[in-house]
């Protein structure tokens, strides 16, 4: 299980693939079904859609 949070490096966030098991700082966890990365000005938004209904959002 990969632990992700606001202190995770961009390399760690970019290395998450569909099918990986992840967990965030709040305790939300699950298997990644889809990944979307949005770039807005000086910020990157990582959306990890989970198979068991839910999304983990990490802002960098």
Q: Could you characterize what this model shows?
A:
The chain has one domain: Roll (SH3 type barrels), CATH 2.30.30. The mean pLDDT is 95. The chain has 60 residues and is mainly β. A 5-stranded mixed β-sheet has the order 1-2-3-4-5, with no helix packed on it. The chain has 1 helix and 5 strands. It is globular, with a radius of gyration of 11 Å.
pLDDT < 50 stretches: none
Tell me the structural class. Answer: mainly beta
Number of strands: 5
Estimate what percentage of residues fall within beta strands. Answer: over 45%
How large is the radius of gyration? 11 Å
| Highest CATH level, the class | Mainly Beta
Placed side by side, the strands forming the largest sheet appear as 1-2-3-4-5
Q: Could you describe the largest sheet, including whether it forms a barrel?
A: 5 strands, mixed
CATH fold type: SH3 type barrels
Helix content: under 10%
- Count of discrete alpha- or pi-helical segments spanning 4 or more residues: 1
Distance between the termini: 21 Å
Mean pLDDT: 95
The shape is globular
Which series of helices and strands comes N to C?
A: EHEEEE
CATH architecture classification: Roll
Number of domains: 1
């Amino acid at each position: 299980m990969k632990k992700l949070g606001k202190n995770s490096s961009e390399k760690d966030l970019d290395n998450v693939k569909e099918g990986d098991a992840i967990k965030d700082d709040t305790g939300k966890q699950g298997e990644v079904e889809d990944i979307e990365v949005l770039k807005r000005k000086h910020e990157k938004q990582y959306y990890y859609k989970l198979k068991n209904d839910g999304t983990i959002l990490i802002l960098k």
